[in-house]
Amino acid sequence: MKIILGIGNIGDLYTDTRHNSGFQALDLFASDFGLSFTKKDFKSMIAKGKAFGEDVLLLKPTTYVNLSGEALIMAKNFFKVDVEDIIVLVDDMDTEPGHIRLRLKGEAGGHNGLKSIIYLLGTNEFKRIRIGIGKPKVGSTPDYVLSAPRDSLEYQAWKDGISKACEALEYSLKFNFEKAMSIYNR
After folding, report:
1. Which stretches of the chain score pLDDT less than 50?
2. CA-based nearest residue to 6, from 30, 28, 24
């Protein structure tokens, strides 16, 4: 089984914010495979099913971004899933909108959701797809990540990045993560 966690904040207020890039990519993925987030378990809205013959558990934590690791560790321990079978979809300020980066491991880079996951897993060696949101030109980081892109070009680039993240996720499940890295990290 693969556990795929999208980092984001639950609730209508946050739906179209940069911090919900992981949720949005996971929603696209679920739609592509006819999966629905109709059940709540592991402090998450969950969807279970198959993708390319692989069992998948999709998690959208209800813990808000900063405690994302709580949801992941509960599901991981319940299903006895190895860390190498976990993929996290996360917004990334160090990547421009419209771009993604796939990583096999890495630090949190100031992202509290990743900090929570690294702390509770006890390792930073898990797969992640980083979805570019860019850095704020003015204002605070919290205000920036908790808002939607205001400029229509930036908004479209951001949405393109979310679509690319979904494509990369699907490609990584169909083939493997390393092969997806060689294609999507160009």
Report:
1. none
2. 24
